[in-house]
Amino acid sequence: xxxxxxxxxxxxxxxxxxxxxxxxxxxxxxxxxxxxxxxxxxxxxxxxxxxxxxxxxxxxxxxxxxxxxxxxxxxxxxxxxxxxxxxxxxxxxxxxxxxxxxxxxxxxxxxxxxxxxxxxxxxxxxxxxxxxxxxxxxxxxxxxxxxxxxxxxxxxxxxxxxxxxxxxxxxxxxxxxxxxxxxxxxxxxxxxxxxxxxxxxxxxxxxxxxxxxx
Length: 214
Description:
The structure is a single chain. The protein is an alpha/beta fold. The protein has a domain of 125 residues: Beta Polymerase, domain 2 (2-Layer Sandwich), CATH 3.30.460.80. It is 26% helix and 18% strand. The strands form 2 sheets. It has a 5-stranded mixed β-sheet. Strands 6-7 form a two-stranded parallel ribbon. It starts with a helix and ends in a 32-residue tail after the last strand.
């Protein structure tokens, strides 16, 4: 083995060792472990129902029918992906948002005590919020997404009662996307004036005076 090969091998051994040590020190869970734990908080009742299966033996030989194989049912009401990211992505319905966020912070195994980013997003047909959470004790990170098709009166529950820093982030989102937050203590414009028309960060926003269109 060449010198460079040995150096490269040693580098990855040290890197993997540090990862293991970090998990032992901070009790960090990987994405799969987080998904199993968090998913169990919102069990899908449909997953417990027995699907009807048409057995091959019950189908006549001359029949063109094929056996219906039931599609896998998500055991959780939450949806999980990684989307090429190193962080676990969690999609939650608006009505379950506050409960999920509260548990993510209060549960001792997750303890997401740091909301380090809250962003409004216009996906075209849907408006929503993306939250980046970190646990300063366990050192794991997740991304939570919530969406709505209601572009006229998009509304989600506030999380500023869980993380105080969300108060001004949510006001900024209200400014630029027109998304309202239930139970927010002071939901008013932060950057824009009260007479401002439209929401500048929405994809359908038009300002014929100030916008430069190439």
